[in-house]
Amino acid sequence: MLSERVASWRHVFKLDPNRAISDGALDRICRSGTDAVIIGGTDGITFENTWELLKRVRRYDVPCYQEVSTKSAVIPEFDGFLIPVVLNAEDPRWLIGAHHEAIRLYGRYIPWERVVPEGYVVLNPDSRVARLTKARSSLSEEEVTAYARLAEHLFRMPVVYVEYSGRYGDPRLIRAARAGIVRSRLFYGGGISTPEQAREAARLADTVVVGNLIYYNVDAAVQTVRHVRETPREAGPDALR
Ligand code: 1GP
Hints:
Blueprint: H1 2-6, E1 11-15, H2 23-30, E2 36-39, H3 47-57, E3 64-67, E4 80-86, H4 97-106, E5 115-122, H5 128-133, H6 141-154, E6 159-163, H7 171-179, E7 185-189, H8 195-204, E8 207-210, H9 213-216, H10 218-229
Parallel strand pairs: 1-2, 1-8, 2-3, 3-4, 4-5, 5-6, 6-7, 7-8
The protein binds SN-glycerol-1-phosphate.
Residues 14, 163, 165-166, 189-192, 209-213 line the site of SN-glycerol-1-phosphate.
């Protein structure tokens, strides 16, 4: 099952098809020992730029997943598909509208066994994803816990994703998400650039996502794999399961 594979990820890199990356940098990322490479982004995502990047990543053994943000860029050759559902979006398009439209058009062809929904909670109001989805991102700990609980218990989502894209997050809110889930996997992504941040994120989340750092300090990005792997996750409510 794909969601079981996703449940084994401790560290992943996220590559943006709309940003340039040299062959040398891509080589380092794909050989870094990360658990998977996710390809996806918010702006300027096309079939062509996604396909170009997928072909380059496919030279390596690392599993490669598409995080789908636009239906016209979906490529069947990925190992699997992560489908963001932005739980705190005030524009319902990003909660259900875009998904409904894609399923209306392509529903009979979708390989559901290779699809994993992600319940996003977008917490950086200045990020492109927050602006696009009109995310209600100024949330209390209690509100974040409630979104996480809702994702797991109402929507049965295998992944809850605390997204700070572009800025390192508030550890209290990552903990608040953890407090709401028992079985779902907690992803954290946003602004990781130092060993301390990588270690802290690894203590708080099940899966740590590193994106932007790849594009300005690939050495530091590669080192986050080791920092995350060396750090045990702190016990949460799921410790009892
Ligand atoms: C973005 O969560 C990822 O969707 C990673 O965030 O790009 O800030 O590392 P950064």
